[in-house]
Amino acid sequence: MGLPVFHMIAGGARPVAPYSHAVEADGWVFLTGQMPNDPADDAAPFAPDIEGQTRRVMDNLEIVLEGLGLGLEHVVAARVFLTEFKAHYQRMNAVYRSYFPPDRLPARTCIGVTGLARDALVEIDFVARRP
Which residues are CB-neighbours of 45 under 8 A, at least 6 positions away? Predict the structure, then answer.
């Protein structure tokens, strides 16, 4: 196994903690959970609803993937963290599902949590694999 490569992606959202946007080892790419912060304006308020926050998170993940020369078709697994699981699960799913073809959904775990950084409603991370 080669040493891991740590990636910070130009144009990616500003980290809200000490982490790399992605770490790559032997063709596996682990994307840090993204928040719904705007890469163009980190001080901008988050969207007030779960749909808007989910779209921003997914778009932030796409920015990281694209910066690595990958796309959503390379994603093999996802973890979703929701602060209001019962209220937001179905609505988050509707947005999340729109990013993937129906027959190409990654493996996924969805977890209810008591809180996320900066009071976000949702955070999502990915595992991708290079072809």
Answer: none
Match domain 5-129 to its CATH number in 3.30.1330.40, 3.40.50.1110, 2.60.120.340, 3.40.50.300. Answer: 3.30.1330.40
Give the mean pLDDT per block of 10 residues along the chain (131 residues): 93 93 97 96 96 98 98 98 98 98 97 97 98 93
Rounded distance between C-alpha atoms, residue 93 and residue 89, angstroms: 6
Q: Using CB atoms within 10 Å of the CB of residue 79, give its burial: 0 to 12 exposed, 13 to 18 middle, 19+ buried.
A: middle
pTM over 0.90: yes
Is beta strand 122-129 parallel, antiparallel or unpaired with respect to 75-82?
antiparallel
